[in-house]
Amino acid sequence: MKPSVSSTIAILCLAVLAMLVSGCDGNSRSGTLSAPESPVISRRARWAMADQGYVALRAEPRLDARIAAHMRGGEIAEIHERTGFRETQFGKREHWYRVRFEELEAWAHGAQIKRFELMRQAENAAQRWDND
């Protein structure tokens, strides 16, 4: 006697379910899943490129704060935070961004940097900066 199509499908479904259940035991630890950086996932600027000859990196997000370092035009830093307020510099009202640059964390004013979601976007812009 030949099994029907519906019984074959039911047997296959049960087999797949049994494999899924047997692969999960109570002692397994949940791991972390990481996905590659993507504009669809991040939707925020994570990288900054110095958009002027020299960009002052300050110890605090204020125009009168001590300058901790400088970024040269085309150099890239990772953005870690953004202030909730804006301040005007060079005629632009922008946020301050806490960036990590060469093992230093300091603040850059948004009027002096270009922001990018992906590091490769910042690198492409930096290459164009060098070629200009």
Radius of gyration: 26 Å
How much of the sequence lies in strands comes to 35-45%
Low-confidence stretches: 37-42
Task: Give the termini distance in whole angstroms.
Answer: 79 Å
User: Which sequence of strands runs across the widest sheet?
Assistant: 6-5-4-1-7
What structural class results from the helix and strand content? alpha+beta
Largest sheet: 5 strands, antiparallel
Number of helices: 3
Mean pLDDT over all positions: 83
Question: What is the CATH superfamily of the domain at 42-131?
Answer: SH3 Domains
Q: Care to give the gist of this entry?
A:
The protein has 132 residues and is an alpha+beta fold.
Keywords:
132 residues, alpha+beta, SH3 type barrels, five-stranded antiparallel β-sheet, two-stranded antiparallel sheet, 27% helix, elongated
